[in-house]
Amino acid sequence: MSRAETSSEVVAEVNALRQQIEDANHRYYVENQAAIPDVEYDRMMRRLQTLELEHPECASADSPTQRVGAKIAEGFPPVEHSVPMLSLDNAFDDDELRAFVKRAAERLERDAEALTFCCEPKLDGLAVSLIYRDGRLDQGATRGDGRVGEGITSNLRTLRSIPLRLRGSDHPSLLEVRGEVYMSRPGFERFNESARLEGGKVFANPRNAAAGSLRQLDPQIAAARPLEFCAYQVAQLEGAEWEETHSAMMARLREWGFRTSPELAVAQGAEGIVAFCRGLGERRERLDYDIDGAVLKIDSLRDQRELGFVSRAPRWAIAYKYPAQEQITQLKAVEFQVGRVGTLTPVAKLEPVQVAGVTVSNATLHNMDEVERLGVRIGDYVIVRRAGDVIPQVVQVVIDRRPERTEEILMPEHCPICGAEVERLEGEVAARCSGGLFCPAQRKEALKHFASRRAMDIDGLGEKLIDQLVERGMVETPADLFWLEAPTLAELPRMAEKSAANLIQALERARHTTLARFIYALGIREVGETTAATLARHFGTLKALMAADAEALVQAPDVGPVVAEHVETFFAQAHNRETIDALIDAGVKWQEVEIEARPRPLEGQTWVLTGSLEEMSRDQARDRLIGLGAKVSGSVSKKTRCVVAGPGAGSKLAKAEELGVEVIDEQAFLARLVEFESGAGGDA
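The structure assignment produced for this chain is given below.
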């Protein structure tokens, strides 16, 4: 291939990349729409940078590589940044971090391991600038194109995490603070849920929600949304002395009333920042806000000034990017899965794609309401999101890439497993198979639920073994499990005599359970662990519960009409009563205690268990607390009465200490249980 031919191909690729990046910038910064995932944007930008470096004749002053963002949206006054709001270069692995440190050390003529860095999460939101004059908020603006942003002062004033007046004393005459506006994950979920109920706009992710909220012309809209601000830089300071380091400036900002990242840390050398990035990555899913990486800055402000900038980024900072949580791929087909209680869930069958380091070929579409909201069709290109252990989900259709021929997604009229009629009750989102226990799909799921740890706790009876037992016709109802024999089990694939014997022993242990666990194991719609425990305490015996009608059921604490109807309907079905009789015939039993004889001193209290316990399992501790009337929660809040903290307690313990919630160790917990269960204990 000749040089001329090569240049022609390069020019064409450069022009195409520039157009794609500019289109994405316009959609994201001007229209508040995520046209492509971050990883695709980063890939295109890096490719364009590489081509321009390798072919200087292709360089252009109007290339996206020479600026940060996009044009200003109409409706907001333009604000020129005195100090440009430049973006950061990216590192995608440990070696690129080490190379960044090496370059900085060489320019400073310093030992690389002697350099100190300030490290913090890279929040996934909208970057803004705040200017304070004589301690009062005077102006707020977006990043815009890095040199000119949008004046959104009125909207930013509505954020309670932004001080309208600096706290403390010795305020500078001029202060410019930069930071990120974002939505926490809980706030985002609440906002979207409210939007669904009111028929409003539902956002694909917290980042889009934050950006879209801040760029509303009516400040009342921003005020009504759960936006938060976290400061990450001082850009201008007059009338006060600069600290020597960035980390010290962050401490000064905290004194003046700004929120800074609680994850902020100082690290030494390349291995220090590598360790920080790894540690933050491990904690990433436990944070209550989205991050897409970490930001590493040389801590010394003198060194920052000496290193300076390249055209669009500082030489003294870099962003470490984690594997993308969103990717773009094609929806090839939709299958409907049948759940434990007959719920039909549309599942997207995707062209396999890497998301957050995992190959994803399936993603949930939740229900037909969500299919309609997304406007998704078979054949569409879609954005798939996966965060941590969350099931991958389709969050957005890429309308610009919709093929000419696509196919509408329709709910089947009959169950794809058993052929029974599919029902969708008025007012309910879910569609359900009407086949009940006769549907093989529900049979498997019902058995899996029955054997699960918080139900009958049958150790060794996993999903694959249940599949085999059902498919071979060895088990049709839960009662059949207790008639299995070790020699027969040992003949199954991947089973041996020892495994079979262990399962028979686990089944024998499961014969002795509690009424609450047994009720939960039956798989009644809307009856979770807490409701099952409530029903057991209120009625005392299974016979009394089975005889109760809806009017009697709603007398139980926290049991409403819907749950009461489901419980009454369940026990009215002949095949369900036959299943219960068969379980009792198989030797399943529990102690039925007169409810009036049981003390309930923790009624209305919320307790939290964290860390490991030595004298009992977490499940045993949970059961005893529920038996005393307590609600056992997985998170700590101001409403938490007490936290039981064992070895290895982490963020829940820290949250309890922050809120001033009582914390006790296992020995104190055991002592209180004795008091409560004997009736001697009073208020905790």
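Interim note for the steering committee: The two ends are 82 Å apart (CA to CA). The chain has five domains: 3-66, 90-321, 326-423, 437-595, 601-678.
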